[in-house]
Amino acid sequence: MTLIRDLVLALATLATSSNARCLPRSEDSKPTLPLSKISNTGSTPLPVPSKDPKAIILGLGFQNYTCSSSSSTWVQSTIQAGAIADLYDITSKTTSNTGDRYSKSSLKAFETCLKVTKCTPTTANGFCDRCHTISSAAFASKRVGEHYFDQINGLQMPNFALDTLKCFFSGKKGGGVKAPANAYKGANGLGAVDWLYLVDNNSGRTKGMSSVYRVETAGGVAPSSCSNPGSAMQVPYATEYWFYD
């Protein structure tokens, strides 16, 4: 009963904050990519976009890892690894003050649902589709597509199929920095995945956009080591993907 109550409370919190964002947006509240929240330095900082985002999409799903036989660490370079997530349009709900509200709250609800239902993500159950439905219901956003990986020339490539927006993006990493120290670390307490800048990978599949930023990340980090080579691990995560022309 306690777990179910926690899930209801998490959903109620998200629903309350979401409803407050259904009002007309003022010029002062228009969303700006929150690069000021990170230490945007190092060899691959995230560039500042020159345009407004075409769409702001919440991704909710799993970071997929494989135990490497050579390093005894969890890696995402194999064909089974990468990530898979359902995508929800939150463009009209996002403002300059939203912060990580959607990624943090939706992931907490998602994690609670996974625990209550004891769901292990598989293709057969739609990667715990029931928990996606429950967790996304609170902010009343329709599923607009899917995020997944495939391989090109032996390299893992991130793809975003935004069917209802009639867009597709197949990318590669163009930049990356650590998430803010206060980002939600997920139920395993290991941290939030990096913020990324993705560019077209020139595979000829991208249509309707030119770059994607992964920001406001929550969860998704695997343990530092593993002992069963070839085994797989799925770590729940949520994030915002900001798409640009």
UniProtKB/TrEMBL annotation:
Q: Does the keyword Ubl conjugation apply?
A: no
Annotated keywords: Signal
Taxonomically, the superkingdom here is Eukaryota
First and last residue of the signal peptide: 1-20
In Pfam terms, one family for this protein is DUF3455
According to the record, the residues making up region (Disordered) are 23-46
Q: Does the keyword Ion transport apply?
A: no
| Protein name in UniProt | Malate dehydrogenase
